[in-house]
Every structure is written in structure tokens, then in C-alpha cells.
Please model this.
Amino acid sequence: MKKNHLAIIAVLAVLVAAGGGWWVYFGGANSGPGFADTGDAELVALGKTVYVAQCAACHGANLEGQANWRERRPDGRLPAPPHDATGHTWHHPDPQLFETTKRGVAALLGPDYKTDIGGFGDVLGDREIWAVLAYIKSRWPEPIRRRNDKLNAQAKAARR
Model:
């Protein structure tokens, strides 16, 4: 009987852990909506406020990025890229953008990657990060948003 109880507890623990991971990834308690919802006016407004305070100094007030953002400087670092339609941000699904913003590019590409920016996980809460992403996406032209929506649909399907 004890073995049955332990087996049941082990199965329940695995299910809770798997469900908890899914819940956090797709919008759990502290993670915000799980995808940047441009239809949520409150989230977009919060994102604008956070963007102005935390991002605009490097990425530009109009999401334009720094000049020559594709060319490495003498120190090996790239200038801040644009987050508007001219940049590459929209080429990535929201969960990847979230992780990049939270953990930093070097955390994802390796400690040898040279960058001026770290992650914002110690500065911003998950909801604030999702809000910034929603604000950025809200500024993209509709065709770009639709293309990004397709990436997000693929990301959701891959997680199932």
C-alpha cells in the first residue's frame, strides 16, 4: 500500500510541476499574460511608461535604435537595435523576447557574447516586461504584427 501511495504522490508531483511550468510560461501568477497582448490598453499604457523610463535612452523614444546598429563597434559590441518595424524584434516570438529581456542576450547566447545590456529581471517584474513588449508591438504596422502573430501561434503549438 505504501508503494502505491508513493507512486501516486510521484505522479501528482510530476503533473503539478508540468502544469505549473505551463501556467507560468503561458501566463501564471507573476508572468503576465504569457504573450504580449496589444489589445489590452492598460498593459500597453503601462508598457509605454516603463519603456520611456527603462528603454528609450538606448533604443530611442520612437523605437528607432542607435545609428549603425548592425555594425560592431571597436569594442565588439553592437549598438542598441531598433524595436520598430525596421529592426528584427518582430522576427521573434513573444516568449523569446520575454526571456531575452528578462535574462539578457548574454545569458541566452553565452557569457562570451559582448553586450552593453544585461537582463531586466532584477529591475522589472514579469508583468512590466510583458507590458513593454505589448507597447513595442502596438507600434508596429498591422502587416508586421500579423507576421509576428504567426510566429507566436507556432510557438504556442510547439509548446503543446
Residues 36-159 form a domain with the Cytochrome Bc1 Complex; Chain D, domain 2 fold (CATH 1.10.760).
